[in-house]
Amino acid sequence: MAQDQIAVYPISANPPTWGHADIMRRAASHFGHLYWAAAINPHKQYLFKPEERVQMMVEYVKHYELKNVTVETYSGGTVRYAEKKGARLIVKGLRTVADFQGELEQFVGNRGINENIETMCMFAQPPFSVISSSLVRELALLRENIDQYVLKSVADLVGRIIAEREGTHL
Would you call 80 a catalytic residue per the annotation? Predict the structure, then answer.
């Protein structure tokens, strides 16, 4: 890994958690520039709009005071996005064995598109390994406190968005 390399860390997080942010922070320390990208998959239903997910991700980048991370959205294939950004590496976060299987399948597909773009997997740190966006989203929809799973400003934003969509206030 080199400080002059560009990497892409795509996530579909809905919302992004401390686990996603930790992988982003750790990956950013190894590369000259990291694109932390919110994937837009038309076959997946998201609670949060792409611009809301980006806003949440930006909160983490500001929290860690990272100057070499750009947050944006993309649709289409991750390899094509990486090519457009000049990245030669895709970073993936692993929490569980199930994550490994899915990422391995994506790696094989991505290699078939461009064998010059590598994939690097980083393990979630133990406190984050069992926290999923699905869990956080479910707790938030139940109006439970999610502060331990996401940055406080992200928890506030999640609460406001859910309240606005339900037409109520927290």
Answer: no
* Residue among 20, 25, 53, 137 flagged as catalytic: 20
What confidence tens digit (pLDDT) does each residue in 156-170 have? Answer: 999 999 999 887 554
Take residue 92 and report the two structure tokens written for it.
Answer: 């993936």
Among residues 103, 99, 110, the alpha carbon closest in space to that of 133 is found at 99
Structural domain span for residue 67: 6-129
Report how many domains make up the chain.
1
Residue 125 lies in a domain: yes
CATH code: domain of residue 30:
3.40.50.620
Sign of CA dihedral 141, 143, 147, 152: positive
pLDDT digits (tens, 9 = 90+) for 94-144: 998 888 998 999 999 999 999 999 999 999 999 998 899 999 999 999 999
Question: What predicted TM-score, i.e. pTM, was given to this entire model?
Answer: 0.93
Would residue 85 show up in a list of annotated catalytic residues for this protein?
Answer: no
Exactly one of 53, 85, 95, 137 is catalytic; name it: 95
* Catalytic one of 25, 85, 92, 133: 133
The answer to whether the beta carbons of residues 50 and 73 sit under 8 Å apart is yes
Q: Which of 43, 44, 67, 169 is catalytic?
A: 44
Establish if 168 belongs to a structural domain.
no
